[in-house]
């Protein structure tokens, strides 16, 4: 960071601190509460009062920890939780606005207890800034969307929007196209390779794959984004808009809630990225042809018994969702196998893909793109010796739990072998309610099945074409509301000879 940028960042942080008193008074006068937080839940919030955690300020809670005073930047939120568990034990308490406790847990039995306790309509705390923005645009959005809605509204959307995208039969019909995309990705790598076999920014190519894959899935046709000159201006701008969207979601969620008073830079960026994604995705949809009209998923959304605005929003959200999710997951996976040439040989010769799938599961364990799950518990629970009332917000830190030696021997080592042979049964038993890169239960990511079935095809094609290497010992990770590789990520792809 250059001195001028650093000075500006410190100035903004100082201004934030100086406004704490004003903000507290303002919210005290308004009596603001999150729209998803009922009076009953507010009354039960004191249940976390005895749980250890970082010191809390009046009204604004513990958000000060993500500042130069607290020592943690927003792109290292995952390190904050790692350090807090080491300091305070398996259960910790933060405090959000109005000192409402947010409880994080890392113990396997606690996580299982929370996730098993979910009822008919599991309550997932929404991303408030997105929900607020979408409510302000009723001409575009009939609700806050599948991710942020709750109760019967959420259940209605889920039933009407995800039936086909989660169907094994539907997804299997796309696998031949995934195979073609994998071959195109190999050609793209050869095109952009330098003399030393290195790709300077492999994440840019994997995100192009993510966009191509989601457009193929939703629109039912190839878009050509994997051709050497195939990243159109629309595709590039959409990729950038999605990246900015994740960052602005993170900043509005974990930063001081100043956006509720005025349009802060982070909230302005969120609005800009939301509108950019919406408009750019619609431009892609506008190119629909006869193939699109025959797409199972596109057709099922158009014929769903929901508001027309919901249909448009769902198509936009589905297209945007996989760009970075699939792209980042593939970069993480490649970084892990790059250290094990024996693993790559095994993948290249794996006829039934059992070993390939084991590599992917191990990648999900070590480097999940979604490293935690949040729930509002619906009944009283005892977690690590502490009694929590119904209505408490609990965050299950599954990513950290997957690095616990009590759950997985040699937890920091990439060992696909633990998912096959004699070790498989024990590993599967320990991974229940922990290995959850796509969420859990009814609120899991609708694209889970597509990614799980596509990744083996993509990985095998890449390894059968290239010997992959990566100079760094471990890939640098950035928290961008999902886990992301801190680019640029330079990898070498040497042609495999047979």
Automatic annotation (TrEMBL):
Any Pfam family: p450
Binding site for heme: 445
A GO molecular function held by the record: iron ion binding
Parts forming coiled coils: none
Keyword terms: Heme, Iron, Membrane, Metal-binding, Monooxygenase, Oxidoreductase, Transmembrane, Transmembrane helix
Names of the cofactor(s): heme
InterPro entries (alphabetical): CYP11_CYP27_families (IPR050479), Cyt_P450 (IPR001128), Cyt_P450_CS (IPR017972), Cyt_P450_E_grp-I (IPR002401), Cyt_P450_sf (IPR036396)
Protein name: Cytochrome P450
Protein's organism: Oryctes borbonicus
């Amino acid at each position: 960071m250059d001195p001028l940028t650093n000075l500006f960042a410190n100035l903004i942080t100082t201004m934030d601190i100086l406004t704490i008193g004003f903000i507290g008074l303002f919210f005290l006068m308004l009596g603001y509460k999150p729209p998803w937080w009922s009076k009953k839940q507010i009354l039960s919030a004191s249940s976390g009062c005895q749980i250890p955690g970082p010191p809390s300020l009046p009204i604004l809670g513990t958000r000060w920890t993500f500042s130069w005073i607290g020592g943690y930047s927003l792109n290292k939120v995952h390190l904050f939780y790692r350090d807090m568990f080491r300091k305070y034990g398996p259960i910790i308490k933060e405090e959000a606005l109005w000192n409402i406790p947010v409880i994080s847990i890392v113990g396997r039995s606690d996580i299982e207890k929370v996730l098993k306790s979910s009822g008919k309509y599991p309550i997932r705390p929404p991303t408030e800034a997105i929900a607020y923005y979408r409510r302000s645009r009723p001409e575009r959005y009939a609700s806050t969307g599948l991710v942020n809605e709750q109760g019967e509204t959420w259940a209605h959307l889920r039933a009407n929007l995800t039936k086909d995208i989660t169907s094994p039969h539907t997804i299997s019909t796309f696998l031949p196209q995934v195979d073609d995309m994998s071959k195109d990705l190999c050609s793209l790598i050869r095109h952009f390779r330098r003399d030393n076999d290195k790709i300077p920014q492999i994440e840019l190519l994997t995100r192009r794959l993510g966009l191509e894959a989601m457009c193929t899935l939703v629109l039912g046709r190839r878009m050509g984004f994997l051709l050497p000159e195939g990243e159109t201006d629309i595709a590039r701008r959409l990729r950038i808009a999605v990246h900015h969207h994740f960052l602005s979601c993170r900043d509005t969620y974990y930063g001081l809630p100043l956006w509720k008073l005025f349009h802060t830079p982070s909230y302005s960026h969120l609005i800009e990225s939301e509108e950019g994604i919406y408009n750019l995705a619609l431009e892609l949809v506008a190119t629909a042809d006869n193939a699109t009209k025959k797409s199972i998923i596109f057709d099922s959304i158009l014929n769903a018994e929901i508001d027309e605005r919901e249909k448009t929003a769902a198509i936009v959200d589905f297209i945007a969702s996989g760009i970075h999710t699939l792209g980042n997951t593939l970069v993480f996976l490649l970084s892990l196998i790059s250290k094990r040439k024996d693993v790559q040989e095994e993948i290249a010769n794996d006829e039934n893909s059992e070993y390939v799938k084991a590599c992917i599961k191990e990648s999900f364990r070590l480097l999940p793109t979604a490293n935690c799950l949040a729930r509002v518990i619906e009944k009283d629970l005892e977690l690590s010796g502490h009694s929590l009332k119904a209505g408490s917000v609990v965050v299950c830190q599954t990513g950290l739990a997957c690095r616990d030696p009590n759950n997985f021997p040699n937890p920091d080592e990439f060992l696909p072998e633990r998912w096959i042979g004699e070790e498989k049964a024990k590993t599967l038993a320990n991974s229940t309610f922990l290995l959850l890169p796509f969420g859990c239960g009814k609120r899991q990511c609708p694209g889970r099945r597509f990614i799980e079935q596509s990744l083996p095809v993509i990985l095998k094609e890449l390894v059968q074409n290239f010997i992959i290497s990566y100079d760094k010992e471990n890939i640098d990770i950035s928290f961008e509301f999902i886990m992301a590789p801190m680019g640029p990520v330079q990898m070498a792809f040497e042609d495999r000879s047979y």
